[in-house]
Amino acid sequence: MGGNAAFANFMSLGPSDRLSCSHHVFAYYLDTKAAFAEDGFEVDSMPDIASAEAVWAYVQPKLIFVKHDHYTAGKVFYVGIEANCDWEPEHGLMLCFREGKRLSKCGGYDDHVTNRNAYADDSLVGIVYKALDPMHTTSEDQ
Q1: How far apart are CA 79 and CA 84, in angstroms?
Q2: What global pTM score does this model have?
Q3: How does pLDDT run across 127-140, given as a tens digit for each residue?
Q4: What is the distance between the alpha carbons of residues 106 and 23, in angstroms, rounded to a whole number?
Q5: What is the pLDDT of residues 10-31, one digit of tens each?
Q6: Which of these, 44, 76, 81, 136, could form a disulfide with 27 (CB 3.0-4.6 Å)?
Q7: Taking a C-beta distance cutoff of 8 angstroms, is the pair 105, 113 a contact?
Q8: Tens digits of per-residue pLDDT, 61-75?
Q9: Sign of the CA dihedral running 71, 72, 76, 78
Q10: DSSP label at 113?
Q11: Mean pLDDT in the chain?
Q12: How far apart are CA 69 and CA 84, in angstroms?
């Protein structure tokens, strides 16, 4: 599958597909807020997001891109979204969809399409959000 097909797949996704990704984005929010609090940062100014469904009100998409995975044989293409998010203004939010269909990575922007690639760790295959606190880690199976 090429980049054009991946992009076409992505463009065919609808609101229910976005909602199915909510718990991954919410886990990123919860993990970030807990890490900031633990590090002594003032978290009172961070948004108080009550649920996974509500998280999207705090996300502002900026860029859509298509990128192939340099580390996978056969050049698998991913469609990514780079967004601002109100809880992490420095690193924002990046979502990557394998072949434009399935969320494979969620987290701060780091230019990697999977967590396996970001950390060069095969044990992270299938991990969508790799949390600082493992309790917030999410996977493709969830």
Answers
A1: 17
A2: 0.93
A3: 999 999 999 999 99
A4: 10
A5: 999 999 998 999 999 999 999 9
A6: 136
A7: yes
A8: 999 999 988 777 678
A9: negative
A10: S
A11: 93
A12: 23
Provide DSSP, 20-78: HTHHHHHHHHHHHHHHHHHTT---TTS----STTTGGGGEEEEEEEEEE-TTSTT--EE
**Inter-residue long-range contacts of 38-47, CB under 8 Å, 24+ positions, other chains counted:** 46/86, 46/87, 47/86, 47/87
Two tokens, residue 114: 């999977």
Asked if residue 43 has pLDDT above 90, the reply is no
In the chain, the amino acid numbered 14 is G
| Alpha carbon distances (Å) from 72 to 4, 60, 104, 111 | 18, 30, 14, 16
- Coil, helix or strand at residue 107: strand
Question: pLDDT value at position 38?
Answer: 84
Q: Residue 2 corresponds to which tokens in the numbers above? A: 């090429």
Q: Which helix (H) or strand (E) holds 6?
A: helix 3-11
Identify the residue whose tokens are 């969809």: 97
